[in-house]
Amino acid sequence: MVVVTLKDYLIIADDFTGANDTGVQLANLGVPVHVEFAVSQLHQGSTVLDTETRNDSVTQAASKMAAVLPQIPWGQFDTVVKKVDSTLRGNISTEVRALAEAYQPDIVAFAPALPDLDRTVVNGVLRVNGKRAMKTDFAKDPMKPILTDQVTTLLQQAFPELGVAHYSLAQIRATGFTLGKAAYCSFDAENNQDLARVVSALKATGKKVLWVGSAGLTTAIMMQAFNVLPALALIGSVSEVTRAQLHAAEDNGVHLVNIPIYEAYANQTYAPYVDEALAAFAQGRDVILMSSASYQRSELDKTIKILSAHQLEADKINELTQAVLSGICRKVLQRVKVAGLFVSGGETAKGLLRIGKATGAKVLTEIAPGIPLLEIAHGDFTGMRVITKAGAFGNKDLIVYAFKKLKSRSRLDVQATASQEG
């Protein structure tokens, strides 16, 4: 019999909304979690503790932390996260210092980026919607304006007598990225894949880590702790809306497999595209299989021109496109397990179900207006969760959002998913 072990997480936030938006990352993966306002309310299981120190003075925040931290049963929790505001408001340096003294970690890791809300860290500087945080309204917050957008500065202020190492995007994205010997580290992150690499490198040390960041870091920790599978998308739509969604997904670290239909037709092989997808999955990345015409308008004209020269009319080109995309997707799914599938374009979705011998699909819920979540009935992919959408539909972040939904699990899912402890 396989024993399921649910680890306990402690997240310490400085305000109620921050506590909630981080706690929900656990709930999304089926982990029961409570938000508490006092240490006396802590109980067995994962907890988010709200200290309500965001708008306090430095002295007040230090006093509250000094009163709260000694009461925490640290041994009860497998992972401790200091949740900070993704725009760097609050008494971050003071609270991280106090928490490190109480928790006694081997490494303090500061990665505040929240790519899903376009809050990134590049060259050690926090940017909000592409603009330096110090040049946004957050620097003019009447209650608690940010004082710096330099992440290393905040960590250095917490530990002025110690050295702080900062890891750039180039270092994080390098093959075989590992950490040096520094115990106090800050990190760039431009997308969720960057955060995943940071978490992997920190876990590889085997050391006790105090995780300091926003909901983005918590999500990355949870995805790896629960071995959440990557997701796959199949895109056949050539609309401008879909094109924008593809570019947004690429910016967020999703790997795009570009499939020129005329090339697959000429070479009569799917192998290069299947191999590329499998290699990306092996790195833990989400993957999109797409026609080259979906990504670039000029490719649509090129596809029509080349295939027309082979005496293929518009309807036959469309049929060929669906057959190629569905065939490649089927071969990928035969080789790897995924969290679920996102399909854009009604004909693309029907083509995949047809080639997979499905008899239909069960409607589970709606993740957004007009965007249903289904479960495939019978055939090669029976039980697989699929999100479908019409081509010219949805905001630019829809694919990333859909992937997140595919990876969400209920409490029963978690209890049924075995994680073996040796």
TrEMBL record:
Which InterPro entries does its entry note? 4-carb_acid_sugar_kinase_N, 4-carb_acid_sugar_kinase_N_sf, NBD_C, NBD_C_sf
Write one Gene Ontology MF term.
kinase activity
Entry similarity comment:
Belongs to the four-carbon acid sugar kinase family.
This chain belongs to the protein called Four-carbon acid sugar kinase family protein
The Four-carbon acid sugar kinase nucleotide binding domain covers: 232-398
Keywords recorded for this protein, A-Z: ATP-binding, Carbohydrate metabolism, Kinase, Nucleotide-binding, Transferase
Q: Where is the Four-carbon acid sugar kinase N-terminal domain?
A: 10-220
Translocase found in the keyword field: no
